[in-house]
Fold NmrA family protein.
Amino acid sequence: MTILITGGGSSIGTKLAYLLQACKVQVLFGSRSGRRIPPSLPSVKFDWHDPSTFDNPFHWAFEQQSLHPAATRITAVYIIGPTNTVNPAKYVAPFIDLAAEKGVKRFVYLSASGADKNNDTGGLGRIPGYLEEKGLDWVALRPTWFIDNLATEMGMDIKQKGQFETVVPTGRIPFVATEDIATAALEALTNDKTEARNVVVVGPELLTYDNLADKVSEVLGRKIIHKAVSPGERLKFYLLFASEDIAEWLIKVELEAEVGSEAVWPSLSLHDQQARNLKVFVGKLCAKDWLLKHKDLFL
């Protein structure tokens, strides 16, 4: 079998590919550039905003059939939808239709902790709802906040100013590493039995951003400060790289985290998980270990 990973350059996708390789599973990347990421793996051009590219993975599989008939059939897809819209289903649903027609059996979709078909936050709930309507085999991975954002969004300020800013002064969050999300994705893609359609992926500890700043300070050996700012100030930052709809949604979920939206997941009882048809997957990488592993990103 072959597993298609969309969003070829993503951190989770790359880590997932290495995990699949270790399990002797063929991986195919789909990316806007068509580049091989990692270079050792096959890749095709795949762009959510260009439906003409949707057939490229299946064309690749067809071309490979003469060499490895069974191994190159695409049986599962890991979907990272377009991130520049609050209506990703508009772009993803047509691909789901095509993939199902081509014989894909399982769809694993990267969503967000608070999103499901009844709570369409950021448009992320529509795709699981669509998969369910179609009667397909699917799993929605719903990670809480990435600890990796310390580097991607806040790394420059940490390096240059010794501080980082949020609108979450006291909210506790079970920050999760992309390595652990990739492990959850591996399980969702390769486990023949689907235990739960929704998998909320959390880190092993609940931390405030002040707690996180203390851990960064400890690892770097210099004082790093978390500065709480107003929603208006933070909105200006997001508007530097995101549309107004996306920026306003990001502020909304951050304000929800301040009043406890993310802190509920680690303490959710097994009974409540079963009642909601979800499973809480607890990652292994704590904040300090992640920082030690990625310390060079802040130097």
